[in-house]
């Protein structure tokens, strides 16, 4: 898809220096540009590239004035980085703007959907499913019975949404994610054999939530597993039954949260973090990668380690841990010296 520099400048409310009729069809780094590409310059350390770039057009700050000749057309804006981000969002919307119902796909007679939906080939919509406006269900996705999905939601290929799930507006669920599978509920009988505890709750996902590829969110045993507004979950995360994650919290890949734990708002949790069940984590908590959390955490704590310690305490302790062999050797030498003098 091609756009002229004039069209892009109109979207960004920018000023053109160069050829407004130049056409671009792709986005690129400034050092990798081609005549068909659009790039941007916001970081001063990349300024040298603008004099050699082959990009057809470049977004720059209004305060930029070239010191020597350039071949690229400039689009001057207040903030080049923000403008380029806006353009990425626009490009993504255009790229994903599919509509219609492909065949073969299965849509239950009791399912309903709004305007401008896209349902890809081999997708499945179960009984009493309700889709809002501008929903995109990509091929091979599964939407279970009685699931409700709001407006402007994207469910990418191969995602599985189990029955009774409720999803708000402007959510993105990436391929391979599974929402609403049974929680890990088993109890041993008198013979030590595990009997399954029925998981009859559901999952509630509020507005503006992103769920990464391969991430799993279990349904509640009773009640709901709840992902609050604005939560961002990376790829391959496990969220267990009856967990609640507060709004605007972000969790990086390969982390796991055990059952019935409550995580507060605006937390940042690094990759490969393990969090035990039935605890509470406060608001604005920071947890470093590969930490293990086995206790309640207060608001504004920053933790690291396994089991996790206060971040500054962990760093102080780690200095001693690195020097432990030398310290042991010194103690042994001192012990030998004392024994020889004894």
From TrEMBL:
Recorded catalytic activity of this chain's protein: a UDP-3-O-[(3R)-3-hydroxyacyl]-alpha-D-glucosamine + a (3R)-hydroxyacyl-[ACP] = a UDP-2-N,3-O-bis[(3R)-3-hydroxyacyl]-alpha-D-glucosamine + holo-[ACP] + H(+)
A molecular-function term among this protein's GO annotations: UDP-3-O-[(3R)-3-hydroxyacyl]-glucosamine N-acyltransferase activity
Catalytic residues in the record: 241
InterPro entries according to UniProt: Hexapep (IPR001451), LpxD (IPR007691), Trimer_LpxA-like_sf (IPR011004), UDP_GlcNAc_AcTrfase_non-rep (IPR020573)
Signal recorded as keyword: no
Pathway: Bacterial outer membrane biogenesis; LPS lipid A biosynthesis
Record-annotated UDP-3-O-[3-hydroxymyristoyl] glucosamine N-acyltransferase non-repeat region domain positions: 22-89
Alphabetic keyword roster: Acyltransferase, Hydrolase, Lipid A biosynthesis, Lipid biosynthesis, Lipid metabolism, Repeat, Transferase
The UniProt record lists the keyword Lipid biosynthesis: yes
Pfam families from the UniProt entry: Hexapep, LpxD
E.C. no: 2.3.1.191
NCBIfam families, sorted: lipid_A_lpxD, PRK00892.1
Reported function: Catalyzes the N-acylation of UDP-3-O-acylglucosamine using 3-hydroxyacyl-ACP as the acyl donor. Is involved in the biosynthesis of lipid A, a phosphorylated glycolipid that anchors the lipopolysaccharide to the outer membrane of the cell.
Family from the record: Belongs to the transferase hexapeptide repeat family. LpxD subfamily.
Subunit structure: Homotrimer.
Protein name: UDP-3-O-acylglucosamine N-acyltransferase
Species name: Mesonia maritima
